[in-house]
Design goal:
heterotrimer; A mainly alpha; B mainly alpha; C alpha/beta; B: mainly alpha; 10 helices; C: globular
């Protein structure tokens, strides 16, 4: 029968190897983006940022979905690990979403000469980022109590469900008020990607997803350790009282 | 000991009606409290009119505005004035520590949500009934028709659901006055957009059937937000 | 009526109640004493189903927590140390609100009699904002007993009561016991009104009968 120490060692080893794997994959995807992927005809080299932009967006959305599902699970069965996954996922997802918005903006400037556009995906990503930030603000402002995880779980669920509604509302807005360059942007949808571009994109998405998983695992472990420290502190305090 | 068990039996037989009676009790209690201290209402009125004034100055608007600007003014003011009302919904409970009284209600506590949600609806209705005439007076915008009323109602259903839900969530938070607008306005985005766009279309002469997509979106938002509230409120109210 | 076995309750990693057991039968009254922060309020809130717990068995009136919490809430009357009253409403309006919220179905005359019982009949149409601390406590008592709950959970009910108020409380408790109700109350000092209640001390997360072994007498007089 393995002791908990042995379990922990195995788990740490697995986390470390995943971390290494993700670093390697990131390097591979960077090389692919710079050298393997073909030069895009219309936009030139600036298009290469698109791979990271989409990958970051994908992970941002995935993280939110994971957080919301975890929140839902917590509301159903109040287990600490669901709360941990939810919190860690939102923290990491925010970073990826901000990266998505930033890279989108950097891409837009040389191509359409504007930092911002009323593209449904861009606006939705921004609203999603605001909801993420709202989650973190809410969490930090609540005292640690039995109800904090319940409240944040409810908010994560609510926030997540409002995202597709936001997306549809802007898309509807766009069909009524179309803008010329939106068509160009849509032209870069997945369907029109040729072989090497598709492969590069998939590699990037995989790399970022792996980074997300690694960060998630480490962050959850940090949360667990923090709790353990606090429990030990309380125990010590109680022991010292006469 | 029949004295001790008799009451329980009587209560159990009235389960269905008790839920609605509880909703009514919460709504009426809040209504009574607001009527006795009408400062909130006065603040809401002043705030709404002040917002309209600020728009007029900052955008240099004449006494007549186009459909797009008018719709924008109406709905942003609705959204911001609405936020004020949601503080009231839960502020009263928290200040006086009355949550336990609500938590101890022996039924599904989503009834408390619906009581407060109705209060939120009434509040938004009051804001709207102030803004519509004000828009006519200050900006010569005629919004006196049933289509606009329906849009306002659909918006209010979803917005009040969000507001009541989030006011409950931020109750224990130290920074709740600051947080509520931030937490509310992001998920409310589709509601505000739909309200603005459909009103703008109507004022520009579009028919009711042509804005059905927006109406459907509003209904979808309402359904989703109310469902989340209904399913989670009981847990949310707990300590 | 109340059956608790091996209850464990933690707040943010800190153990508040541990291996706590309690059994109270019909017509019995229990007074739980302990220092500030010993967990008396937590225990009462767990019994009232207001707060969850990590492990253990808790049954009130035959209904277990947390599965049957609605049924538990129906048999329980809880007096918190924060009054559950709305200051802009009158005494009568407060009672009427809870009457409807808790589906008690009591007529106004019944509510008036409860107010009479606690000596507040004359103030029934006064806003609670104008009540003194003692009057608020009496109104709270009226609110709790109006429902005629099988189990009364009272968190420091003597707070704020003057001598007359304490007399009223003593009468109410005596009557409740005679009717077969169960009373669990807490106080942080030995109580004047509960001389015939079983006294339990809450210390280190557990309940002990009477005085705990090795505890100095003066600690109880905090």
């Amino acid at each position: 029968m393995k002791s908990t120490a042995q379990h922990e060692q195995n788990r740490n080893a697995m986390h470390k190897s995943l971390a290494v794997a993700s670093a390697v994959l990131c390097l591979v995807s960077l090389l692919m983006v710079l050298y393997y992927a073909p030069r895009e005809q219309v936009m030139g080299d600036v298009q290469r940022i698109f791979y990271f932009h989409v990958a970051a967006g994908w992970v941002g959305g995935l993280a939110f979905a994971v957080a919301a599902s975890s929140g839902g699970l917590y509301l159903w069965q109040a287990e600490e690990r669901y709360d941990d996954v939810e919190y860690a996922s939102i923290e990491i997802g925010l970073v990826f979403t901000l990266a998505n918005i930033l890279t989108g903006s950097i891409w837009a400037k040389p191509v359409w000469n504007t930092w911002w556009t009323w593209d449904p995906r861009l606006v939705t990503a921004s609203v999603m980022a605001v909801i993420y930030v709202g989650y973190l603000l809410l969490r930090r402002s609540l005292p640690e109590s039995a109800s904090r995880p319940t409240i944040t779980a409810g908010y994560a669920l609510l926030g997540f469900l409002s995202v597709p509604l936001t997306f549809f509302s802007i898309r509807l807005f766009r069909t009524i008020h179309p803008v010329v360059f939106v068509a160009a942007m849509d032209g870069l949808g997945m369907s029109s990607l040729r072989g090497r571009m598709m492969l590069t994109l998939l590699t990037c998405v995989l790399a970022f997803s792996l980074v997300y998983v690694v960060f998630l695992l480490f962050r959850i472990r940090l949360l667990q350790l923090g709790r353990r420290v606090r429990t030990m502190q309380w125990e010590q305090y109680d022991r010292q009282r006469p | 000991m029949s004295e001790v068990t008799g009451h329980k039996k009587r209560r159990e037989s009235k389960m269905g009606a008790t839920y609605f009676r509880a909703v009514g009790a919460v709504f009426w209690k809040d209504a009574l409290s607001s009527m006795r201290s009408p400062e909130a209402l006065v603040v809401m009125v002043v705030f709404s009119l002040l917002t309209l004034l600020i728009y007029q100055f900052t955008f240099g608007l004449e006494s007549e505005v186009g459909a797009d600007v008018g719709a924008g003014i109406l709905w942003t003011t609705m959204a911001f004035a609405g936020v004020l009302g949601f503080y009231q919904a839960m502020a009263g409970e928290r200040e006086q520590g009355c949550l336990d009284g609500l938590r101890l209600a022996p039924l599904d506590r989503s009834a408390v949500f619906f009581g407060k949600w109705l209060g939120g609806l009434v509040h938004l209705g009051l804001v709207a009934s102030l803004l519509i005439p004000a828009m006519a007076i200050f900006f010569s915008l005629d919004l006196f028709n049933w289509e606009v009323a329906v849009i306002i109602l659909l918006f209010s259903i979803g917005y009040a659901a969000l507001g009541t839900l989030l006011a409950t969530m931020t109750m224990q938070s130290g920074a709740r006055e600051l947080l509520l607008p931030v937490l509310l306005l992001a998920p409310a985005f589709p509601l505000v957009l739909a309200g603005t766009q459909s009103t703008q279309a109507l004022v520009s002469g579009a028919s009711w059937s042509s804005i059905q997509a927006w109406i459907r979106l509003l209904v979808a938002c309402d359904a989703i937000f109310l469902s989340v509230a209904w399913m989670t409120y009981d847990r949310l109210l707990m300590e | 009526m109340i059956d608790v076995n091996n209850l464990e309750k933690r707040y943010a990693g800190r153990v508040v109640l541990s291996s706590l057991s309690l059994r109270v039968d019909k017509g019995e009254g229990v007074n739980i004493v302990g220092r500030n922060g010993s967990g008396k309020t937590t225990l009462l809130r767990v019994l009232a189903s207001l707060v969850g717990f990590q492990s253990g068995y808790v049954a009130i009136g035959g209904y277990t927590l947390p599965a049957e919490s609605i049924a538990v809430r129906r048999c329980v009357g809880f007096l918190s140390h924060r009054a559950q009253l709305y200051t802009s409403l009158t005494a009568m309006e407060n009672l009427r609100f809870y009457n409807r919220l808790y589906a008690l179905g009591l007529e106004s005359s019944r509510l008036e009699r409860q107010l009479e019982r606690v000596g507040l009949r004359a103030w029934q149409d006064e806003q609670v904002a104008y009540f003194s601390r003692g009057m608020i406590q009496r109104l709270e008592l009226a609110r709790v007993i109006a429902a005629e709950p099988d189990v009364l959970l009272l968190d420091e009910p003597e707070n704020g009561l003057d001598d007359d108020g304490l007399e009223i409380l003593k009468d109410i408790l005596g009557e409740a016991c005679a009717q077969g109700r169960v009373i669990v109350m807490s106080s942080h000092r030995s109580s004047a009104v509960t001389t015939d209640f079983r006294k339990l001390v809450l210390e280190s997360g557990m309940l002990h009968e009477g005085r705990a072994r090795g505890m100095k007498a003066k600690v109880l007089d905090v």
